Amino acid sequence: MQTKYNTLVLVLVALSGALLGLSMLLIGPHKHINLVTDFYSVTDLLPISVFNALAALAFIASAILALLSIKTPTLRPVLAYLLIVIGLVPLISLLSPTRWIADLGGFPAIGSGQGIIKYFALLSIGILLLKPQLSRLKAAWISVLPVMLVLLWIGGMKFTAIEAKGIEDLVASSPFMFWMYNFWDVQTTSNIIGVYDLVAVVLLVAAIYNHKLVLPAIVMSGMVFVVTQTFLVSFNASLSADTLLTGTGHFLIKDLWFIANLALFYPLVKPEKAEA
User: Fold this and answer.
1) Which of 11, 203, 226, 238 lies most in the core, judged by the most C-beta atoms within 10 Å?
2) What global pTM score does this model have?
3) Phi, psi torsion values for 34, nearest 5 degrees
4) CA torsion, points 90, 92, 94, 95, in degrees to nearest 10?
5) How do residues 169-186 score in pLDDT, each as one tens digit?
6) Alpha carbon 97 to chain centroid distance?
């Protein structure tokens, strides 16, 4: 990873980790922690508040390590292992049927797992921090696969009524997207967003083999995650004076990890003349 992209990735990890960790401590135990501890059959071993505190402290530790790693690269392997653990623990819980929408046939109709699949981004960051010697092609795929996955999976969900209704309040609050409901109904608007996400996936794949497409691919996919961050301001239920972030805010802030993925992806596939 090039230095300036390293720094951006580490800053994004630090920012997201600090906000998630502090917010989790302030919110206290919540259902997402319960779902994970239930999956591992450890809920009764300790009070749920202890599991919540452990998760929060893991995020805070990742934030501290990320900031220290900017000036002290020798700490990056430690950060990498921590990010891999933070990512794997919830990701494995995707095997639980509670993550899928039974009314839509279960897998691959994802419910509470939408927030979980975002941890693939954190896993990718950890692997690339730990293995900087990987070939450019392997590193490019590892960096961008989580982006493709979330765009393909959550983008595909946009064609369902439950997801269209689920994003209605977010879209209506956005200064960049509210106008869509002036032209189309809730489902059609969601379908258009889904098509956008799927086209972005195709562009990202094409960019790996045709480097001239990397900028449009990153801009198109990156806008999904940048606009998501604007929901933190436009959607009242995202932030809280008492807990910094709400549960919705937790879901939204994780998109910073995908911006980090794209920051890792760009220097690996950018056109040669852009490297001069």
Assistant:
1) 238
2) 0.94
3) -60, -40
4) -150
5) 999 999 999 999 999 999
6) 21
